[in-house]
Every structure is written in structure tokens, then in C-alpha cells.
Design brief:
This protein has one helix at about 45-70, and strands at about 10-15, 25. The protein is mostly helical and about 70 residues long. The protein has one domain.
């Protein structure tokens, strides 16, 4: 009985619903490095991760602004 060795896929689809669903080359050009993942790359593409990070940063900034206004008010 021989074991099948799986190789890194050439393309990867950024998973829905949080991702964009696009099929992109599974390289560091499109996906950030992540040593904890099987192939060493994140599952979500760089663009989706950037959008998520920017959204989270915007929420954090708004929350801090409200907190600051309450302390001043």
C-alpha cells in the first residue's frame, strides 16, 4: 500500500462568506505567509485580509473617539 503525497495546490479559492470567493494562484503574491497552515499560507487572500483589518481599525478608532468625547463631555 503506497501513501499518496499531496502537493501544494497551484490555485486556492478565498472561502466565502467572509472571503471574496475568487480563485487565485496560491502564492505569497496573493496570500500572506502563515506557518500554522498546512501549506504555509493564509486561507484568505491579501485583499480580503486588508479589508477586514481596515474595517476593524475603523471600528476601533470610532470606539476610541466616542470614549474620548464621553470623557471630555
Amino acid at each position: 500500500m503506497t501513501k499518496k503525497i499531496k502537493t501544494k495546490p497551484e490555485e486556492h479559492t478565498c472561502p466565502l462568506p467572509k472571503g471574496c470567493g475568487r480563485s487565485l494562484p496560491y502564492t505569497t503574491e496573493y496570500f500572506h505567509k502563515n506557518g500554522q497552515q498546512k501549506w504555509g499560507l493564509h486561507v484568505y487572500c491579501k485583499e480580503c485580509r486588508r479589508k477586514k483589518r481596515n474595517t476593524a481599525d475603523a471600528r476601533k478608532t470610532a470606539k476610541n473617539k466616542i470614549k474620548h468625547e464621553e470623557e471630555q463631555g
